[in-house]
Input
Amino acid sequence: MSDAPTLAVESLRTHFFTKSGVVKAVDDVGFTVGAGKVLGIVGESGSGKTVTAFSIIGLVDPPGRIVGGRVLFKGEELVGAPEERLRHLRGSRIAMIFQDPMMTLNPVLRIDTQMIEAVRAHDSAVGKDEARGRARDALGRVGIPSPDERLRGYPHQFSGGMRQRVAIAIALLNKPDLVIADEPTTALDVTIQGQILYEAQKLCRETGAAMIWITHDLSVIAGLADEVCVMYAGRVVESGAVDQVLDAPLHPYTRGLIGSVPSRNARGRPLMQIPGMTPSLIDLPPGCAFRTRCARADAACAETPPMTEPLPGRKMRCFHPHLGASA
Output
């Protein structure tokens, strides 16, 4: 068995070339995900999380394009790969779960029709009955009761939580090696969200699939992920084992994110807030993008901080991290 990770992203840069300027949506992003592991990617809206996901699976359209870096899927370079090859990988070896399940589901087709097509599109040798059996089993795995009856239904006959379960079942139909989930539980109530998180984690462990879970919700990552990358203004500013990052954040931005979670705030005390707004990604000035919002910033932060590893397995971009007594 190879020690190579399921996915390795190295120095990825995806820019959008607009009339107003160059938007550096993803700027020098790197991480790895191993088989059976869950990587959480967190950050505010506009931090580059979704563009990173779309870059991995080759869904960045003009005016955007990947301008640098590598995406290695089980050792195979995906940046610059032919569209035919990427189409073959998408839906079979690499699956994407979107925030809105209706991006996956066709509203005018029955669920069984859509799931059978999803199986046979990537394996024409599979007969209709076998494909239906796979679809029924997939619905059962994500906790949908009476799967035979549900297969005959249309998307509008399902609740939002059920539709998202169907979308997850479709993503897992062909037993992919990598699943990318882009905030798939954001619009769901807490009970359904918890069930889907449990099922996603269980399926990863059982099938050996690697998973990237994109969210702005740190509480989701705390219970789901093995490792976490914190993104800000198109860059990963901190990464490491999820427990270590959440218990002892090094980067001031990570610390601010955790401090703004209500459950971590002392009763009766005002909720901590990160001052200011995320900067525009159009022609970002050099230096640390967080410096205008950071209480620890000084003249040194006018330079771009490199990615360093101050502690084993912990990486971050900061000249003034929260280390030891200084935290």
